[in-house]
Design brief:
Blueprint (H helix, E strand, L loop, with lengths): L2 H11 L8 H15 L8 H24 L6 H5 L4 H9 L13
Length: 105
């Protein structure tokens, strides 16, 4: 199986969208593991064990990919993730009409 296909399969097992934060990856992993762990699962124990192994394997694949991924710190990429407030200040921070004005003392 090609790397993209392997990662896509792992992403789907962990119920992740095509873009996910590390917090979402960990949250989904914990949620699914909690649901399928043989000690908590109410279904067939063999099915639960198999699903647990599948979830752990998928998580390892995703984490391995994330650890090898090179992050971009370019201005364009960083600006893609500005909050609404940061975006506003970036655009209008020094503008006398729309910017962050301070009252004179």
């Amino acid at each position: 199986m090609k790397k993209y296909q392997k990662i896509t399969k792992a992403r789907k097992i962990l119920e992740l969208s095509e873009q996910a934060s590390m917090a979402e990856i960990k949250s989904n992993y914990r949620k699914l593991l909690s649901k399928w762990h043989p000690d908590k699962c109410k279904k067939n124990s063999d099915q639960c064990e198999e699903k647990t192994r599948e979830i752990i394997s998928a998580y390892k694949i995703i984490i391995s990919y994330c650890n090898q991924y090179k992050f971009s710190f370019s201005k364009e990429e960083v600006n893609n993730y500005l909050s609404g407030k940061e975006w506003w200040l970036e655009r209008f921070g020094d503008d006398p009409l729309w910017g962050n004005q301070q009252k004179p003392e």
